């Protein structure tokens, strides 16, 4: 039995140690309980020599402990000294097993049988002791580990790191740099590295460029075997050697232990966090929760919270969080005058996707978001504009223009813009403010973090997205209430490129909606798969099985990596039964597709070679990755005379550097796909640009603004080889001077010899060079305008099939 203390802090990580140091400085009676024999077990378990980052840089540090970027050992040494200097009363080997009592009289028991009494408790135990586990076949094999203590333990190994957050990236860098003979692969199931710090991502990309790490995006483990790992990739399954798997898949709160104290969580999901007040107090008065357990994993955030929570416990009611001034600036231009805390509560109460977000998480998300006031009639975005941010309606309502003079309202509390976020497609409709309104614009990065960290938000976004897609598909013939049973039974499936979803001749009645990516439809005619159609994001397929009950009459497979929403045939059938007009419209669509199938079969009988050419050409286009393009350059080689005017015009429009290579690329029949940017739905080049200079323009062009630092990440991330690193050549003389005197290299890209002569020994910095669709140049793309024969055209995915049909007719 010990004397009661004012505050007991459980856990000596950055948050707990900072809290204890503040208590020590204030002279408060306290005890810091740590289950191990050292302080800050989470940092202690970092791999040896790890560089610890002090992010976010904009955030001021508010703590009695020192913290700046440095090696793990240096930081731990400082904290040991700070604990002594701040008179921290720490008890080690004190693993807490039970907490009982109430505010003013809590009782804390440890595994050794010791009992401590405290008026208040600060829970700072973190989540690292409860890591997420791998879930694929073979996930219980012994060569799967969940942390790296010392990179020196790994020599001459094939190592695969699963997980691309900060911990995974740092482990991959550590084992790659410690032993150059290691073969290191890191897997990321998405394109974006949304959970990692920009510095870590930049270091990883540099290591990838230097051959130290193989970076695999849109890839996840499928099967673990001794010595081998089978991967599910965008192009199909792949088997690689693997001696060790380092699984860094995040961690979750030790929920059972926390709930045993009476603390409530924001929801039932495994990833949910405790419910907390703005002063970190839980649903149990007198118990406060800070650090990673509160949803804030960054060290600087944790340390600030440790300082703040003790100030709150000590009665300081005037203390504002360290990020207060940044958040105040975000809300400054709104018509209503509220404090930051009032605004955050207002948004959480009025917007569905924020309902399960803790006040602490809300602060972090809002720092990456914008809040704006719109007057009635103001345009938020126009139909056809590119955009990947998400909008939430905090006040007022929005109106969607679905036709001339026809609008559909989106109510307060809902969201819009989710199609751009999920599918990468251009904005599907013009959105205006239906009344004086307040909208929150959440950046794509912040939205992805929100969906990853708050399961409730992810469910709301997915549900609204599916409801909107189905309402749009059926042209207003349904209501949200009609769709409820269908959406309740829906499942989201990830499909790699080339994977067959439906097989011709098989029985089945599930219906699929393409959430992102695209599909191709083929039919077996005469023993050969014949290409029927291309299905972009927002399309659906499989409904024929529901209506007819007959086996599948075509094969559907992924043109590129895609996400599908599977609707059960039974729920879909009940929906159609409740709405006869929707069933009629669906039957009409099915009849139209059947007519197309019959047409192809009839043409096969009489024009076999033409149909083969059409099918093979369309298949070629899909294999070249144009299924994820929004604008691609194609050249008809029957018309092309090889003048290279397209390349010359491109160079003359872009400081002497051409953005395309006419001769490079592949050709089928007389359709050529040169090396030129495709302006993808989800641009790979935008996935990791440290200075954030790659953007979409108003016409959908993916372009680079000034500020490129030459890191080469975009070039490495582009799967089509259309970005190169070049130094801008010296200015050329004017056209008139060249015509009159012959001075200079002439039109087009200057030769390396001329450039070298002009520059001498100077070695200018290289920057990324890619097609920008001649953004800002009157008349559109110079390559198309300069083609004297009309051989060069730019097309969208929906136009690809018409190009293929032209080839069929020409045949």
TrEMBL record:
<feature type="domain" description="Cyclic nucleotide-binding">
    <location>
        <begin position="353"/>
        <end position="468"/>
    </location>
</feature>
<keyword id="KW-0479">Metal-binding</keyword>
<feature type="domain" description="4Fe-4S ferredoxin-type">
    <location>
        <begin position="765"/>
        <end position="798"/>
    </location>
</feature>
<protein>
    <recommendedName>
        <fullName>Oxidoreductase</fullName>
    </recommendedName>
</protein>
<feature type="domain" description="4Fe-4S ferredoxin-type">
    <location>
        <begin position="631"/>
        <end position="663"/>
    </location>
</feature>
<feature type="domain" description="4Fe-4S ferredoxin-type">
    <location>
        <begin position="700"/>
        <end position="728"/>
    </location>
</feature>
<dbReference type="InterPro" id="IPR017900">
    <property type="entry name" value="4Fe4S_Fe_S_CS"/>
</dbReference>
<dbReference type="Pfam" id="PF13247">
    <property type="entry name" value="Fer4_11"/>
</dbReference>
<dbReference type="Pfam" id="PF00027">
    <property type="entry name" value="cNMP_binding"/>
</dbReference>
<keyword id="KW-0408">Iron</keyword>
<dbReference type="Pfam" id="PF13738">
    <property type="entry name" value="Pyr_redox_3"/>
</dbReference>
<feature type="domain" description="Cyclic nucleotide-binding">
    <location>
        <begin position="474"/>
        <end position="593"/>
    </location>
</feature>
<dbReference type="InterPro" id="IPR036188">
    <property type="entry name" value="FAD/NAD-bd_sf"/>
</dbReference>
<dbReference type="InterPro" id="IPR014710">
    <property type="entry name" value="RmlC-like_jellyroll"/>
</dbReference>
<dbReference type="InterPro" id="IPR000595">
    <property type="entry name" value="cNMP-bd_dom"/>
</dbReference>
<dbReference type="InterPro" id="IPR017896">
    <property type="entry name" value="4Fe4S_Fe-S-bd"/>
</dbReference>
<dbReference type="InterPro" id="IPR018490">
    <property type="entry name" value="cNMP-bd_dom_sf"/>
</dbReference>
<keyword id="KW-0411">Iron-sulfur</keyword>
């Amino acid at each position: 039995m010990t004397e009661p203390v004012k505050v007991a802090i459980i856990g000596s990580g950055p948050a707990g140690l900072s809290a204890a140091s503040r208590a020590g400085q204030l002279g408060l009676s306290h005890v810091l309980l740590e289950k191990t024999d050292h302080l800050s077990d989470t940092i202690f378990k970092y791999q040896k020599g790890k560089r610890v980052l002090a992010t976010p840089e904009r955030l001021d540090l508010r703590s009695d402990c020192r913290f700046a970027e440095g090696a793990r050992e240096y930081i731990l040494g400082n904290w040991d000294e700070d604990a002594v200097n701040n008179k921290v009363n720490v008890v080690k080997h004190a693993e807490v097993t039970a907490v009982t009592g109430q505010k003013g009289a809590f009782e804390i028991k440890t595994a050794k049988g010791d009992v401590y009494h405290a008026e208040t408790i600060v829970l700072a135990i973190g989540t690292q002791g409860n890591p997420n586990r791998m879930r694929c076949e073979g996930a219980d094999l012994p060569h799967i580990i969940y942390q790296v203590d010392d990179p020196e333990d790994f020599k001459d190994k094939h190592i695969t790191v699963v997980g691309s957050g900060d911990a995974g990236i740092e482990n991959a860098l550590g084992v790659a740099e410690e032993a150059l003979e290691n073969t290191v692969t890191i897997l990321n199931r998405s394109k974006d590295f949304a959970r990692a710090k920009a510095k870590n991502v930049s270091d990883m990309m540099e290591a990838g460029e230097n051959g130290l790490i193989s970076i695999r995006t849109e890839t996840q483990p499928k099967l673990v075997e001794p010595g081998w790992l089978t991967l599910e990739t965008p192009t199909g399954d792949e088997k690689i050697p693997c001696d060790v798997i380092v699984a860094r898949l995040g961690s979750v709160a030790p929920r059972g232990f926390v709930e045993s104290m009476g603390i409530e969580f924001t929801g039932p999901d495994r990833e949910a966090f405790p419910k907390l007040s703005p002063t970190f107090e839980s649903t149990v008065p007198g118990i406060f929760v800070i650090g990673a357990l509160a949803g804030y994993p960054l060290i600087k955030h944790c340390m600030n919270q440790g300082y703040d929570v003790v100030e709150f416990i000590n009665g300081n009611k005037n203390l504002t969080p360290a990020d207060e001034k940044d958040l105040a600036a975000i809300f400054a231009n709104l018509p209503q005058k509220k404090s930051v805390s009032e605004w955050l509560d207002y948004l959480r109460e009025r917007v569905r996707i924020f309902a399960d977000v803790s006040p602490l998480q809300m602060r972090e998300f809002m720092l990456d978001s914008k809040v704006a006031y719109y007057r009635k009639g103001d345009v938020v975005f126009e139909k056809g504009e590119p955009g990947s941010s998400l909008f939430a309606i905090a006040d007022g309502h929005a109106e969607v223009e679905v036709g001339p003079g026809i609008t559909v309202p989106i109510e307060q509390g809902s969201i819009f813009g989710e199609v751009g976020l999920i599918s990468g497609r251009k904005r599907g409709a013009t959105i205006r403010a239906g009344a004086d309104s307040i909208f929150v614009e959440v950046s794509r990065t912040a939205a992805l973090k929100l969906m990853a960290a708050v399961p409730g938000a992810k469910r709301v976004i997915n549900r609204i997205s599916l409801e909107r897609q189905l309402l749009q598909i059926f042209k207003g013939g349904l209501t949200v209430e009609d769709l409820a049973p269908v959406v309740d039974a829906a499942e989201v499936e990830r499909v790699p490129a080339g994977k067959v979803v439906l097989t011709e001749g098989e029985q089945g009645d599930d219906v699929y909606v393409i959430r992102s990516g695209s599909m191709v439809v083929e039919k077996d005619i005469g023993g050969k798969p014949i290409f029927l159609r291309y299905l972009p994001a927002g399309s659906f397929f499989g409904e024929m099985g529901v209506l007819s009950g007959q086996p599948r009459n075509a094969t559907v497979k992924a043109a590129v990596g895609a996400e599908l929403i599977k609707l059960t045939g039974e729920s879909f059938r009940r929906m159609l039964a409740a709405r006869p007009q929707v069933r009629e419209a669906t039957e009409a669509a099915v009849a139209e597709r059947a007519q197309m199938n019959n047409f192809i079969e009839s043409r096969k009988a009489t024009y076999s070679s033409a149909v083969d050419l059409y099918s093979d050409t369309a298949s070629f286009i899909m294999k070249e990755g144009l299924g994820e393009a929004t604008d691609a350059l194609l050249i008809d080689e029957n018309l092309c005379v090889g003048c290279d005017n397209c390349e010359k015009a491109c160079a003359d429009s872009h400081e002497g550097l051409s953005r395309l290579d006419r001769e490079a690329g592949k050709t089928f029949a007389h359709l050529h796909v040169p090396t030129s940017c495709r302006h993808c739905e989800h641009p790979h080049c935008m996935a990791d640009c440290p200075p954030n200079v790659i953007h979409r323009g108003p016409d959908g062009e993916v372009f680079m603004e000034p500020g490129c630092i030459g890191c080469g990440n975009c070039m490495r991330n582009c799967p089509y080889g259309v970005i190169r690193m070049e130094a801008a050549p010296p200015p050329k003389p004017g056209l008139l001077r060249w015509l009159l005197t012959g001075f200079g290299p002439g039109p087009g890209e200057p030769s390396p010899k001329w450039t070298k002569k002009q520059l001498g020994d100077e070695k200018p910095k290289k920057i990324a060079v890619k097609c920008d669709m001649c953004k800002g140049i009157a008349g559109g793309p110079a390559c198309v305008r300069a083609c004297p024969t009309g051989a060069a055209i730019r097309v969208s995915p929906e136009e690809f099939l018409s190009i293929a049909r032209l080839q069929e007719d020409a045949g």
